[in-house]
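It is worth pausing here to work through a concrete case rather than discussing structure prediction in the abstract. The textbook approach is simple: state the sequence, then state the predicted structure, then interpret. We follow exactly that order.
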Amino acid sequence: QSDMITISMLYPMLLCLIWTVTFIAVAISGLSSGLLPLLAFVSLLAAMLGVSALLCAWVERGHLPLLVIFTWLHLCRAAFRVSRRWGIWWQRLSSTSLHGQKKVQSAPELTQIKFAVNPDSHRDLRTTYFVERRLGRIAARILMLICGTFLAVLGSFVLMAGIQQRSGFFFEDVMWWKLLEDGKSLKITNAGASVLTLGRNSSHDTQGSVNAFREADAVLSADKPHYAICGHKWKGLQLVDYALMAMVSYISPNEVNDLPQLLKLLFPDLDVSIKLPSLGQVQRRWLELDVGFCKDGSDCRNVTVISVSGTDVTRIADYAENVRMWTEPVSIQILSTVFPTVRIWPRDCASMVIKSIHDILGGLGLSDDQWHYREVLNRVRQLPRDREVVVTGHSLGGGIALVVGALTNRLAVALQPPGVYNSLAKHQAQQRISAGYALHKRSVSLIFEGDWIQNFDGHGGLVQTMMCDQSDKSIAVGCHLLEGAICHLLRHCGDDARRFDFCRHEYQPTSTVLSILKSVWVILREGLLSSYKNVEIKPTLVAGMAVSLVVVARHGAPPMLQFSRSVFQPSACGNS
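Step two, the predicted structure:
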């Protein structure tokens, strides 16, 4: 099946190649005949190849033969188009100069390319020919529109991310927490819009904490689970434990956010400590947590949990990372609307296509391997193989956890990830790893119904789907919030540790939208002001002149010259 799909993709490409070569051969044969023009043409091709090699060597890419070949083909195409345009212009110029004078010999005409079979000669041929061309144009325009839109979105994200990094305008405290007056209840706020409250029954009458306790907020007893995954543990930790650790990775470790105290409140029965916090403004937030288990004070063991944060709504680079991580699966889904047979592709076929794309990009010196998970991947590889390690995260962090777990053969627990079933192929190709089904063996994913972010790619391994408590706000990512997932797990799976008696989640998406728009406006304003102060006019003028000369050289200047001839050339009445 994969071979047939590959052949169906290669045959149209081969047909286009044969048609292009035939067109060029016919066009060249009509210019002149003889051995000397043929030798000149071959010499020109060899010269173009040498220029291509020199250009690639000049940018330190001469060791990439595929890039040299692509550059040579582009130069040959450009030279062919320029020579043809200037030849047509010279023909028109010669015809215009002979206007009003007796022509001794008609001006030479360029050979016109004709079809072997004229489509106008037969009614059925004419109908099918023009319909197929119209459908082909529509499909090509749709694909070009998709590619152009993707490049525009990715380019805008990269540009704004560069402005943000250069200006140093970052929000460090996107998520924060505080201890309520009872000393046992917690309130965790995410971007000022999503508020999670975890409390005990003794705090219901405490002034300033939780004023009203609803039965719907109560934590379920652990012996009455509502889902099949409830009660299961991985390396001694429940799914809600991994969710809480993924939430902690969003919080910046500073004096205001006392992470050690927060970990003691969230895990009172465990010895959880931060071993290696990730700091820095331009790197992804992630934490290395050392979890200690002891039975009767003698039998103790430690588990290392790598917790990776998800998308930070105030960091433009995170949006660009999301686009880069899931470009190929989304493109395949869009392509399936034009070519429905793409939907029956097996994973091996999709992986082969994605891997081939990145192999070609690598051959052209355009390998896209600067991922946010590099530090996490290097750290997990440094840990001893006999140590119990789990990689976890939420959203983008969950996708990173699945990728790192598959690349290192470690257990990954992902909360509401977009899925990496097909997109994992490019990461395995870049890391030279051929384990295609590692995702099925050591991964656990929790997804929620109504969360549209999970549809970016397929899911592998053990997947549990749960209901959404904020389904009326699903478009505004109400079903994608980690705080809501924690409450849903506590209310429908319970808590073996009995840390909290109730959980409440409140979400106001308007606050999130206003916060994002305000941060983007401040970033753009600061970046534009700094760029305006440091701008230099001379390099801009030189670049504009160079681009203008290139455009004139490629497309010619017949309109301007024709206008000048119409103004300065004497009229026929004057000659008479």
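Step three, interpretation. The chain is about 50% helix and 10% strand. Confidence is low (pLDDT under 50) at residues 102-111, 203-212, 560-568, 572-576.
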